[in-house]
Amino acid sequence: MVKFICGEKGSGKTKKLIEMSNADIKAGNGNIVFVATDHNHIFSLDYLVRLINAMEFNIEDIESFYGFLCGILSMDYDLDKVYVDGIYKLIKIEKKDIDYLIEKLNLLSEKFGVDFYIGLGVGSDYKLKQIPYKSSEYIIEVAGD
To answer: Is 79 in contact with 112 (CB distance < 8 Å)?
Structure first.
């Protein structure tokens, strides 16, 4: 399964991703990875959630991001879910790229039984109505508090 957590800057995307990852690790169904662009959330995440700072890996585009995720999957056969916060800080992603990314991630999800949750927003201000129609079933929209 692939889901994008969408909303405007300050709408609570990161908070939602952290809450979901902490709840999932407590459910104990498998390992959880949280990919971020810094280490700021190390104390917000349960100690069993593996935090990875993606900025350390020279990710430049969707293909290198896909390869990065494949590397994570290859190291942990018990991986259940991958949460990605701040993808827009890693790679330039436009509306037209979303369907392609979903297609690539769905292949990984089906083959390895891993779910992906990706925060999408700041700097791009994606909202549900701006996402290509084909992709809308993959969207969870977060509204500010």
So the answer is: yes
Q: What are phi and psi of 97, to 5 degrees?
A: -85, -15
Cα–Cα distance, 22 to 137 (Å, whole number): 24
Q: How far apart are CA 25 and CA 65, in angstroms?
A: 24
Q: Write out pLDDT tens, residues 90-102.
A: 888 877 788 888 8
State how far the Cα of 104 lies from the Cα of 126, in Å rounded to an integer.
20
**Distances in whole angstroms, Cα of residue 76 to Cα of each of 15, 60, 72, 108:** 25, 24, 7, 14
Tens of pLDDT, residues 110-123: 999 999 999 887 44
Cβ distance 99 to 4 under 8 Å?
no
Residues 50, 51, 54: CA angle, nearest 5 degrees? 130
* 81's tokens: 């879910």
Cβ contacts of residue 142 below 8 Å, gap of 6+? 5, 6, 7, 11, 12, 13, 16
